[in-house]
Amino acid sequence: MSTSSPSLIITGGAGFIGSNLTLALQQRFPDARLTVIDDFRSGDFKNLAGYRGDFVAQNLATLDWYAQFGDQKFDAIFHLASITDTTLHDQFVQVHDNVESFRRLLNFARPNRTRIIYASSAATYGAAAAASVESDGAAPANVYAFSKVIMDNIAIREVKEKPDWIIIGLRYFNVYGPREAHKGMPASMVYHLAQQMKAGQRPRIFKHGEQKRDFVYVKDVVEGSILALEAQTSGIYNLGSGQARSFNELVDVLNRCLGTRLPADYIDNPHAHYQNFTEADLNKARSALGYAPQFSLEDGVTDYMRWLYPEVRLPA
Predict the structure, then answer these.
(1) pLDDT tens per residue, range 6-27
(2) What's the pTM value of the predicted model, to 2 decimals?
(3) How many domains does the structure of the chain reveal?
């Protein structure tokens, strides 16, 4: 970033990852001119406590960017807004809103070659048995993942046609952390299991808890997203912890953090297309972005529980 006072847009900035990113950018660049765009479908104003920037309440699928911003120029646009509820099965709504929002944004950014950093998803990989590499073919198992594949396709086409334009896609893996509670059911399993265990209930996980996820703490993906401001070339990159951990291990970590001894309550898995394994290969993100996650599952969950339950005395 060539300036200490950049002008930045964050779409979806009232959402989970978006609000963490917005507040981190505000701290990193105190003189930045920040503008959040959000329609509150999957966001909450409470996530932006302490935010000092502008806010545009608009649906990105219908937003007229030129009417809203005229000839204003921006250093970068972080595009995190999307319908994130993978249980929404209305294919038209999911694809239309996610893809057309991205297309409108690109149309606005194209004349000035404004840097775009957008949220793709590890869901684009579909079922996997080993660490996912960015060059792996797309195999979306739901319409949300399909919409992200189309966004990736559009981004790849744009940079082929305009190599001087930097567009960076970030495939977030299983992110957890502060400011996700408003999401309800789509919130992370870390959050849901913690809530159950804090209430004295046995944590409910699918039989037999050996499914593995790349659980990545939100502070790590925020740092990776900010690093993309300095990337010299376009690309699509995985952002995860780089390590798959089982749900049984997660329950053990939560028991240690919360001082509980609650065994898992194993239930049948009703999902036909459930991902039994996710793990990010981070080689490309390390070399291109300098991305190096700092939080193990143990460290991330501990930090999160301290934020979520400040009244609980957690082990040092």
Answers:
(1) 999 999 999 999 999 999 999 9
(2) 0.95
(3) 2
